[in-house]
User: Which sequence fits this backbone?
């Protein structure tokens, strides 16, 4: 078994371990929320500090968050058109599921195991652009269509963005890097130790969140969301991979990044705005399975 396949088998084994532990009631799905908070507030920022503090910024890296952000805006606009015939609340719920990506919890552990720091810096920049989509665009859509008045609290949007530890870590460490400053060595050493826990914790959390049951009434809208995300995402990814004359890691980031699962952040949004949380969770789970298979195939054969 080659290195890539062995890494995916190992990742799948940890995901299935998490699912098994949930099924035998050793762990609960609610434990996944605790692990996720630990990842997003401790281990993921630790990775960002280690990677961003020493990386060399070039034009290909700066282009990654721009593409990620613009693609998210376009996908949101396309979704609003596709779901224009749905009721107001249904339109809001379905549209918020289309533009965002799960980078930190899903992509980071696999990318780290295969490409190490060189891969993480590209996916970190991808997630920077994606963060604006997750915390601004998706939240605005969810908020506007949740009520008949179409009101949105920009104060809440700002608060959510400023309370995102990974997002703030991206911005601060990138600024430190561009200014030519350095992070104290003790911080680098501590975050280096903490970052090693990210991969197993993230994969275990994915297993705890997995669920394979859903209502048949979900099928139509689930199919539309999946078709939008993967047909457009994969198509644009292939075009960038073949037409943009930049380094291979940039191309792989675009090809893989645009077919990642839906961000987990939409689940708390669905709770906050009283959408169908079970539907949101079901679609999220399905995209995890599809993206895992596609990512495995792309990395193995491209």
Assistant:
């Amino acid at each position: 078994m080659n290195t890539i396949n062995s890494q995916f088998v190992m990742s799948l084994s940890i995901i299935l371990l998490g699912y098994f532990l949930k099924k035998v009631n050793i762990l609960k799905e609610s434990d996944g929320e605790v692990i996720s908070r630990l990842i997003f507030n401790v281990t993921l920022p630790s990775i960002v500090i280690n990677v961003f503090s020493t990386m060399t910024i070039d034009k290909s890296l700066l282009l990654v968050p721009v593409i990620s952000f613009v693609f998210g805006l376009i996908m949101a606009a396309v979704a609003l058109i596709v779901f224009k015939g749905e009721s107001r609340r249904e339109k809001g719920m379905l549209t918020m599921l289309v533009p965002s990506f799960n980078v930190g919890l899903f992509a980071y552990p696999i990318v780290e195991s295969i490409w190490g720091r060189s891969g993480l810096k590209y996916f970190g920049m991808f997630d920077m652009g994606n963060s604006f989509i997750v915390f601004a665009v998706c939240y605005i859509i969810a908020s506007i269509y949740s009520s008949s008045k179409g009101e949105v609290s920009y104060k809440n949007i700002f608060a959510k963005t400023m309370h995102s530890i990974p997002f703030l870590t991206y911005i601060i460490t990138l600024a430190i890097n561009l200014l030519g400053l350095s992070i104290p060595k003790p911080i680098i050493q501590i975050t280096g130790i903490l970052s090693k826990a990210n991969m197993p914790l993230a994969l275990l959390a994915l297993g705890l969140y997995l669920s394979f049951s859903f209502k048949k009434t979900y099928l139509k809208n689930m199919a539309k969301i999946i078709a939008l995300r993967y047909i457009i995402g994969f198509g644009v990814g292939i075009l960038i991979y073949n037409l943009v004359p930049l380094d291979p890691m940039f191309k792989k980031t675009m090809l893989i990044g645009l077919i990642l699962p839906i961000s987990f952040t939409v689940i708390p949004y669905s709770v906050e705005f009283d959408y169908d949380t079970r539907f949101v969770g079901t679609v999220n789970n399905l995209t995890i399975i599809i993206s895992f298979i596609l990512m495995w195939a792309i990395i193995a054969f491209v």
Q: What stands out?
A: The CA atoms of residues 51 and 121 lie 6 Å apart. The chain has a mean pLDDT of 89. The radius of gyration is 19 Å.
